[in-house]
Amino acid sequence: MSVEELKFFLSTEQPCSYLDDRPSASVFADPKDSMTTEMYSTLIDHDFRRSANYVYRPHCPSCVSCKPARIPVNKFKPSKNQKRVW
Hints:
Shape: flat
Radius of gyration: 17 Å
Oligomer: single chain
Largest sheet: 4 strands, antiparallel
Strand order of the largest sheet: 1-4-6-5
Helix content: 10-25%
Number of helices: 2
Distance between the termini: 47 Å
């Protein structure tokens, strides 16, 4: 099975857990589908997250505030100010 063959489901709207005044929804990959490491990596590259056996991503109608930030920590070099604070 490939990523293109996965089934996805949209949750109902609920209050956003990040921003109180906004609605939220999520797209879930079907947890019954078997997922390879390659498939999981592809979904992670498309802003999906994992919680236990669920792979999901926020899919909010008018917001992208909770878009994840990927930080390549092995390339991080602290500034002089960050070193001083540390």
